[in-house]
Write a structure and sequence with these properties.
CATH superfamily: Umud Fragment, subunit A
Number of helices: 4
Distance between the termini: 92 Å
Order of helices and strands: HEEHEHEEEEEEHEEE
CATH class: Mainly Beta
Strand content: 25-35%
Number of domains: 1
Structural class: alpha+beta
Length: 203
């Protein structure tokens, strides 16, 4: 009686067989594709999460915040500092443009950047080039251009809203024209200028 042994079938009759060394190479290539695909997907997910909930970069298209922010500057905005932090007078905020901006300022931009002048409950007015907040002159300990330009009437800032002005007072279309900004429209606080490199620094 003849012995029966198992033997692998490596090829189909009439077809060339695959060399042994090609199999591990093909598996290695497939593994690399899977790994790199996973890395790309994770990177995209992290980038989307960071942009949506943590930080975002913005380009400065106008001179309304000069000399603090110049045309062409790029800044990083912290979203968490608004979602979980406190907004202070003097903070530089990026926010959704109010509806009246396009008509009042001839500027159809989606987002604006200005400085907080008035907090919820504050009463603001101006005389000459001096801004008064709750009856006291506002000390602007940040760089800015005068004269004031458009005056501030008699404004009481509603709850959960902020009065915003550009540091380039005479050339800024801001809350003096289109009113206060609700907190729900605020994107985040600008905290770092990243471009140009010659002006790299915290705000």
């Amino acid at each position: 009686m003849a012995d029966i042994t198992d033997s692998p079938v490596d090829s189909v009759p009439g077809e060339p067989s695959e060399p042994e060394h090609a199999r591990p190479r093909r598996k290695h290539t497939r593994r690399l594709l899977v790994e790199w695909g996973s890395i790309v997907l994770v990177a995209l997910a992290v980038s989307f999460f960071m942009r949506t909930y943590v930080i975002q970069t913005f380009f400065i298209p106008s001179g309304s915040m000069e000399p603090t922010l110049m045309i062409g500057d790029r800044i990083i905005v912290s979203k968490l500092s608004v979602q979980f932090g406190t907004i202070h007078r003097g903070d530089i905020l990026v926010f959704k443009a109010p509806q009246g901006v396009a008509a009042a300022c001839s500027d159809p931009v989606a987002d604006l950047v200005k400085r907080v002048i008035g907090l919820p409950g504050d009463h603001l007015t101006s005389r000459g080039n001096t801004i008064y907040v709750n009856g006291a002159p506002l000390v602007e300990n940040w760089t800015h251009y005068e004269p004031l330009g458009s005056p501030i009437g008699q404004v009481t800032v509603p709850a959960n809203s902020y009065f915003m002005m550009g540091d380039n007072h005479p050339q800024s279309c801001d809350s003096r024209v289109w009113g206060v900004v609700p907190r729900s429209d605020i994107v985040g606080k600008a905290f770092l200028r990243i471009w140009p490199l010659s002006r790299l620094g915290f705000l």
